[in-house]
Amino acid sequence: MAKKPTAAIVLAAGKSTRMVTALPKVLHEVCGRPMLSYVIDACRSAGIERIVGVVGYQKDQVIEAFEGEADVTWVWQEDQKGTGHAALMCRDALEGFDGNVLVIAGDMPLVRAETLELLVATHQRQHAAVTLATAVLDDPTGYGRIVRDEYGNLQGIVEESDCTEAQRAIREINPSYYCFDKKLLFEALGEIRPDNVKGEYYLTDALHILVQKGCRAVAITAVKPEEAVGVNSRSQLAEVGRIMQDRIQHSLMNNGVTIVDPPNTWIDVRAEIGQDTVVYPFTYIHGRVRIGQRCAVGPFAYLRDGTMLADDVVVGVFTELKNSTLGEGTRARHLSYIGDAQIGQRVNVGAGTLFANFDGQRIHRAVVGNDSYIGNGAILVAPLTVDEGRQIAHGSIVRENNATPERAEP
To answer: Which of 19, 113, 207, 333 is deepest in the core (most CB within 10 A)?
Structure first.
């Protein structure tokens, strides 16, 4: 049987009153990236080339955050009337598409591409109208329960508030990973009626309609417990961040990076770190940071967006780097701020060195040549160029009055 194409509907319209925020929920960051970006990337990695994002609350902010990502089509759900209504809003965007439609929430950043791949493959193999990927939790409180018959066939989903005592004991839950036949999905969505307290159209009702019609519905237990965690509160955001941080650090350690004290280290998901580099405790690495091989970073180091360390660089205790490049063999061991600087190879940056890069209106860059020595407590006032092999005395204030300032934002 030929493999059908698969599109994805990512639900990202909600406000989330429990977050107590003016920012769209899906733009809250998890380890340096908006949570929605993880969901979109998982869809891409699973081979899904057509993605429709449903936006509502602060829609322009969400769309702007993903500007330039041409494979995502945005659909506006002006009135948030439930998950079924959100999916229905995508009918025109998927006009002419014939295949599978994956539906997933945009506030589930822990989703893995391999789980989505398995869901789609099972849906195709089983010739199903709808397939769910479910999870088994030790504590299923708050989730809809998966109801099966005596043969294990899916019968439906019962929300916790509607469960009998026996159904409450079911540990298999619905974490909202769906794959539908596109034609049957939109037919079922058109039949949903908002017969509930909230007056909303639920996506689960589409599943029930298909089951009642005798269409094939399949549920596979494929979602790991951590993948079932969505974000509806600041506490859940922190919980998801901890799990994601564990993933990031384990990936780095599996690729040859030593992290001395993982619980007391924070590394952005966008950071790249080379083999045999050691990251010491209380180090914070944020943004697009690239660290070469055999480096030592920390303890108490702060590396910010745009920082690049070549091989065999040491960035030590209470040293902060921002948008700076340090060449191979350079040492900045103690108590320094290096901002918007290009430092060459084998440079010694003495304790307490400051790069004064902001004049109150503009950011300026400093360039330090190879094999230079910067004494303790020096202040380098940018714009500035220090030639190769220069010796800067301890406590010096170094200026270059004739350099041309560089315009930038602080």
So the answer is: 207
CA 181 – CA 97 distance, rounded (Å): 11
- The two tokens of residue 25 are 């929920």
CATH, residue 270: 2.160.10.10
Active-site annotation holder among 208, 334, 364, 394: 334
The answer to whether the CB of 292 falls within 8 A of the CB of 313 is yes
55/171 same-domain check: yes
Q: Tell me the two tokens of residue 198.
A: 């909230």
CATH number for the domain harbouring residue 194: 3.90.550.10
Residue 309's nearest CA partner among 410, 381, 298 is 298
Render each residue's pLDDT in the chain as its tens digit; 410 residues: 568 899 999 999 988 788 889 999 999 999 999 999 999 999 999 999 899 999 999 999 999 999 989 899 999 998 888 999 999 999 999 999 999 999 999 999 999 999 999 999 999 999 999 999 999 999 999 899 999 998 888 988 988 888 899 999 999 999 999 999 999 999 999 999 887 767 788 899 999 999 999 999 999 999 999 999 989 999 999 999 999 999 999 999 999 999 999 999 999 999 999 999 999 999 999 999 999 999 999 999 999 999 999 999 999 999 999 999 999 999 999 999 999 999 999 999 999 999 999 999 999 999 999 999 999 999 999 999 999 999 999 999 999 753 333 333 44
Give residue 355's domain range. Answer: 255-398
The distance from CA 96 to its chain's CA centroid, rounded to whole angstroms, is 31
